[in-house]
């Protein structure tokens, strides 16, 4: 049977989601535990392979197993074996053709920035950007992203994916006690796209770049936004499915 | 001249304050930077040598230097060289006979516990104690500690310190969104004392131990409180000085 799992993790001490020999990864941690249960290797498939340092409030993966357990029992057994920085939120017995990556109809990411004096307790959990930010300039930069665009300008050149057209449904900025959260929902995201969008919006808010989003999208030129905001501020917040 | 420095640090990724060869420590990090500035070894002296994993909202250390700089310049130069998990809050030019440890007239510690479902983003920052806690039982256990007592029952046996009499000025419990903070102020604390007090109060709040504080103090027997609450919940919150 196919099991779908909803997890959270603190990405601070992981070298990303994807398995890497000799590095601590989320996939490696989960597969190690599944191997222990199955006495055999079990491959997991995630909705997103988050980068080193990136967090998940909600991430999905699935795997196939001959072990027949109730969802709550799976949740209990997996949670018991997890380190302090991974939490199993929920387990579902999925349809045999469910795929956590291909069936996702959208994703929501949150990017957390604080602008006050450096806080050692945010280390790895929020990006420190100690500048005055103008929220109206940020909104002006953000609004034109809504809709369907070619995101070549706002994605890493390091990719084999040819089709860079993606649809952004919402992109909001929320004022927090000591900075801003940026929350973006779309049908899919290119490599580093949210972090490049964040870097662009922050430069606009700080006043060192004038919002000119539609022309920048039209340019299809990665070199005009040279910055990628740090991984530590990025959270995969929700993965959207029609079924499940 | 003698320089006194007020710092915060996130203890999660440090093997404690005190220098240890081959381990990442707060003292080692600071002395490395001072050596770089002075082209010579400079010893620092702290108010407390916090254990591995213990945090500081405010910790003091002092050192002697021939370098004559304004306090703000010291703060700027030191902060620039610090990693993300140490913050220099303030620098003072102190009297030549000031000693951050011997001149401290008291200390305040905070112990943070959360009782809700495991939160991966609290990893290393709060102690997870997923039980219902009765605040009135905790207050009953805490109140008799106020005053001057021999704390043999509530301190680690691993110490050469003979005099175990200490004075507790205040000991409060504060309800938070998802648990409790315990805040204690005293003239001084024995090794592991706050973590042993926390373990005792938590067991009383959970109802697995009946508050009987005065008799336990009178017993002067470390073996009746076998638990020490984890380091990750402990914060040195303030060091009190008459001068400075």
TrEMBL record, chains A, B:
It comes from the Bacteria. InterPro entries: PsdUridine_synth_cat_dom_sf, PsdUridine_synth_TruA, PsdUridine_synth_TruA_a/b_dom, PsdUridine_synth_TruA_C, TruA/RsuA/RluB/E/F_N. CDD domains: PseudoU_synth_EcTruA (cd02570). It catalyses: uridine(38/39/40) in tRNA = pseudouridine(38/39/40) in tRNA. One of its GO terms (biological process) is tRNA pseudouridine synthesis. Its EC number is 5.4.99.12. Keywords: Isomerase, tRNA processing. Residues 8-103, 141-242 form the Pseudouridine synthase I TruA alpha/beta domain. It holds the Pfam family PseudoU_synth_1. It is an enzyme of class 5 (isomerase). GO terms for molecular function: RNA binding; tRNA pseudouridine(38-40) synthase activity. Substrate binds at residue 109. The active site is at residue 51. Formation of pseudouridine at positions 38, 39 and 40 in the anticodon stem and loop of transfer RNAs. Belongs to the tRNA pseudouridine synthase TruA family. PANTHER family: PSEUDOURIDYLATE SYNTHASE, TRNA PSEUDOURIDINE SYNTHASE-LIKE 1. NCBIfam families: hisT_truA (TIGR00071). Homodimer. This is tRNA pseudouridine synthase A. The lineage of its organism: Bacteria, Bacillati, Bacillota, Bacilli, Bacillales.
